[in-house]
Specification:
The complex is a heterodimer of chains A (218) and B (198).
Chain A: H1 2-18, H2 20-41, H3 45-65, H4 68-77, H5 80-86, H6 91-120, H7 127-150, H8 157-168, H9 170-184, H10 190-217
Chain B: E1 4-14, E2 17-28, E3 32-36, H1 43-50, E4 58-63, E5 66-67, E6 75-77, H2 89-93, H3 103-113, H4 129-141, E7 147-151, H5 159-174, E8 178-182, E9 193-196
Parallel strand pairs in B: 3-8, 3-9, 6-7, 7-8
Antiparallel strand pairs in B: 1-2, 1-4, 4-5
The chains are: A mainly alpha (218), B alpha/beta (198).
Chain lengths: 218, 198
């Protein structure tokens, strides 16, 4: 069972590496969309710096949605999911392997790209802000996985996926952006960070189980 | 207790309609069962249920004395080949080979068995339909499962490859494995029991 799970993670990572274009597309979307804000809002440094944290968080959330459909949909369509299930791998373990891969292939590059994006918007990135973004993107990978599994096989899954994921992502967005903003202003971010971590702790077991249930019934 | 597959009074419903009703079935170690029936008769549905991918509405399915939920893995070859176009032939077999101690040797042997050794480093998207089916069969041959479930295994295969499939299935049965297959054409499964659905 442990060997199967390890093999599934290796399989997912290998696929993510071969489809590196998906990760690149998410990161480029993140950077390009951020570059639109100064164009639309005007180059006022005070306004941009004030909005930098929120911009980064909302765009990280949207960028996380981009690779979800291929990550889950391809295995659903080509029979790969049946193969993994028949091999004896429990559905929640399949979902967990995909969620981890999503974070490594999309979350981590977005965290790295958030540093130059924040500098561009005139807000110096803080270690606490980056830590919050790391926790937040993990939450997004977990939530996105559930939404992707639930919308698998639905006729308009592409439309359904963001509608399912975005409402669930409000809590990490609120606490994460608040923590990062507090850190930027030199205030105490402990309580927001703790609430974000608490959300992650709840999502870690619940999301793979819920996604696994959706995979089995899908 | 001998290793066997036993179905008792199994009913399977799909989309609110009964597909298979009150099915009793026994398969001993080394046995083979060939499912036939017209399109939509429930061959794939029965195979998916045996694979644990669908739940029967009622009845019990036991494999080697265990209920299906905690039964060991099944070897599965579905309609779709489940190959990743971006991965090479070798890499496509890596997951299935994770039970083997020497994975690379096991993959090489499986590829050679289906005459795919020369294509080991070729991405699966470059393979023809028949070669993809053979690659899926090579993956099946790596499965540690004793029960193999094959949905139209010979689709796209030429005569030589069908003979290779026959040898693969015969070896599996000789080692005490069981095979349930569906097909519209004759399969190289000598002595297989037949079950007509629908």
């Amino acid at each position: 069972m442990r060997r199967l799970f390890a093999a599934a993670i290796v399989r997912e990572l290998r696929l993510a590496l071969r489809h590196a274009g998906d990760s690149l597309a998410a990161v480029l979307f993140f950077a390009l969309a951020a570059a639109l804000f100064p164009l639309a809002l005007g180059p006022g440094p005070a306004l941009l710096a004030r909005m930098a944290t929120g911009t980064v968080w909302v765009l990280a959330l949207l960028a996380a949605l981009l690779p979800l459909e291929r990550l889950y949909g391809a295995d659903h369509e080509d029979g790969g999911l049946d193969e993994l299930l028949a091999a004896g791998l429990p559905a929640p373990a399949i979902a967990a392997a995909k969620m981890l891969t999503h974070w490594l292939a999309c979350g981590v590059p977005v965290i790295a790209a958030s540093v130059p994006v924040q500098v561009m918007l005139g807000a110096a990135p803080t270690p606490v802000g980056l830590a919050a973004l790391a926790l937040g993107t993990l939450c997004l990978s977990l939530i996105g996985g559930v939404a992707a599994c639930v919308s698998l096989g639905a006729r308009r899954g592409t439309l359904l996926l963001p509608l399912l994921a975005l409402p669930l992502a409000t809590a990490p967005l609120i606490f994460g952006a608040a923590a990062a903003d507090a850190a930027r202003l030199g205030l105490d971010a402990t309580s927001d960070l703790a609430l974000l971590a608490a959300f992650l702790c709840a999502a870690l077991p619940v999301c793979p189980l819920a996604a696994g249930l959706a995979l089995r019934e899908g | 207790m001998t290793y066997r597959l036993a179905l008792r009074d199994v009913c399977i419903w799909r989309g609110g309609l009964p597909v298979i009703e009150h099915l009793d079935l026994d398969l001993e170690a080394g046995g083979a069962l060939l499912l036939s029936g017209c399109n939509g008769a429930g061959k794939t549905t029965l195979l998916r249920t045996l694979a644990g991918l669908l739940r029967p509405r009622s009845g019990t399915i036991r494999l080697g004395g265990e209920t299906l939920a905690d039964a060991p893995p099944r070897g599965w070859l579905g309609h779709a080949d489940a190959l990743k176009p971006a991965l090479t032939a070798c890499e496509n077999l890596a997951f299935a080979a994770c039970h083997h101690r020497d994975r690379n040797a096991a993959i090489e042997a499986a590829l050679a068995r289906l005459d795919l050794a020369a294509l080991a480093e070729m991405p699966a998207r470059m393979l023809s339909a028949g070669q993809r089916r053979r690659l899926a069969l090579a993956r099946l041959s790596l499965s540690p499962a004793r029960l193999w479930l094959l949905d139209e295994p010979s689709v796209g295969l030429d005569a030589v490859s069908v003979a290779r499939l026959g040898a693969l299935l015969a070896d599996h049965r000789a080692a005490g494995g069981m095979i349930v297959a569906s097909s519209h054409v004759a399969l190289p499964l000598p002595g297989a029991a037949g079950l007509v659905l629908g």
